[in-house]
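Hey, I was hoping to borrow your eyes for a little while. There's a protein on my desk that I can't quite get my head around. The fold is given in discrete form, as structure tokens running alongside the sequence. I'd be grateful if you could look everything over and explain what you see. Here's the protein in full, and shout if anything looks odd to you:
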Amino acid sequence: MKSPENVIEDALPVHMPKPLAAWLTRQAGNREQRHARRLAACYALTMSDAGERTG
């Protein structure tokens, strides 16, 4: 399976300047990480809520 960075690099036009391609790739990676952190935070909140309700 390809990492999100590889998929994005494959989708970028070949003539795009390398620094711009690298920057776009980095931005996409940051967005993925933020999304993952948000999901983890929501999951942690949900689990703590469930623990308080059942305990």
